Amino acid sequence: MKYKEKKIKLDNPLSFWNYFKNEERFLFYNPLKKEYILGAKRLKTFSMKENLKDYLYTFSSMRFFDSIKDEKWAGFGNETIAFEYYLVEKDGQQTLYYLKDFIEIENREVKICKHSYKYATEDEQDWKELFSVANNSISRKEVNKVVISREIKIECDRVVNVDSLLENLLKKNPNSFVFSYFKEGKTFLGATPEILVQKEKDNILSYALAGTIERREKNDELQKTRLLNDPKNRYEHEIVIDSIVNVVKKFTEETIVDETTTLTLKNVHHLYTPIYTKDKSSTLLEWVRRLHPTPAVGGNPANKALELIKRHEKHERGLYGAPIGIMDQNGDGVFVVGIRSALIEQNTVYAYAGCGIVDESDYEIEYIETKNKLRTIIESL
């Protein structure tokens, strides 16, 4: 099976997204390569071990937990999919790939609209109770870290303009991986800073990303220094580094842990440490299974932290915090962590944010941190 290709020129790659407005489709923007990959019209799904050869790209997503009960997540996740059409934009060049029929895509201007909305849920009391459960578990030394999350239901005055929201996400979050997946009337999208795992031939990369401080208009550089020198955030970050390194060492002989620095996003700074290794024998999907969920989204020890999350979070995570990625026909690609994200259906937005609770975490500070993280979605409305 061979895709045909043709150079095209669209003012905005979202014209491709809009053209297939009623079809299953995805968008994935990689800020490290400044590359857009979009696909539309489901063609084939793949099993875990199946060869991807002959299929230009596949889009893959997992659920945070294997099972789901909440109807709004039905049909989402745990699939690797090839599509009939792809648009790839890199280095200022756009290429349309297609199997049978060439399509003429018109330029469509994305009109930015401002949604009027209200919060349909008030969850501060739920958060307080969840924080208390996590804090007590840490005090009893059952876990040393657990990541708890919020689901905020937002009702807009009209059907959400996903094109506008995506355009805003792309413009406001240039250092983030922006993703969007539309299926059966619902869209899961977000702008995440976090790589779970990247594979390029035998080179494997993962991020330890944990520890957060809000940005400020004045003395923002000082905020970075505070974050780097803060014992609580450094401890939380080291838990993630140690966990990833322990997994990597089980399967490879050499691990390189880079220097811990800060990653700056629109509203927050994070502690950030790249971790490298080499592996010729494992697939990217195998690495995804090994590493998810890191303590950046789950906790440590993993089994006890995840059990606490399952039992006490009142919402279902679905694709929030879960692996979302792109693979090429050689099996190389990148999976990111689906944070700073939301599920959209008609005029309803379910926005998600979480933070890591460790010893000395403060309820109010952590609640404010989730508000800052939720701004990624809310400001794009």
TrEMBL record:
Catalysed reactions, semicolon-separated: chorismate = isochorismate
GO molecular function: isochorismate synthase activity
Enzyme nomenclature, EC number: 5.4.4.2
Pfam family, one: Chorismate_bind
Keyword Ligase included in the entry's annotation: no
Domain of life: Bacteria
Gene Ontology biological-process annotations: salicylic acid biosynthetic process
EC supergroup of this enzyme: isomerase
Record keyword Isomerase present: yes
Gene3D superfamilies recorded: Anthranilate synthase (3.60.120.10)
InterPro entries (UniProt xref): ADC_synthase, Chorismate_C, IsoChor_synthase
UniProtKB keywords: Isomerase
Ranges for domain Chorismate-utilising enzyme C-terminal: 124-373
PANTHER family from the UniProt entry: ISOCHORISMATE SYNTHASE ENTC, ISOCHORISMATE SYNTHASE MENF
Protein family membership: Belongs to the isochorismate synthase family.
Name of the protein described by the UniProt record: isochorismate synthase
Organism: Anaeromicrobium sediminis
